[in-house]
Amino acid sequence: MGLKNCPECGRLFVENPSGMCPACYEKVEEDELKVVEYLRDTRKASLKEIHEATGVKEGIIMRMIKRGRL
Description:
Mean pLDDT: 92
């Protein structure tokens, strides 16, 4: 394992399976939980509506869709 810059914040971290530093990974996990909880109540929300209601970056929401987490 080597050192790598976090794609989210640019900090240096020891490479891991998540591909980002532990702090950003934790933040992304929290954001994903916000999105999932919001969608439990509002199933047919658009990307923009999810972003506006949760404050989660659209890129994170798109990543969730691509990874099949939504």
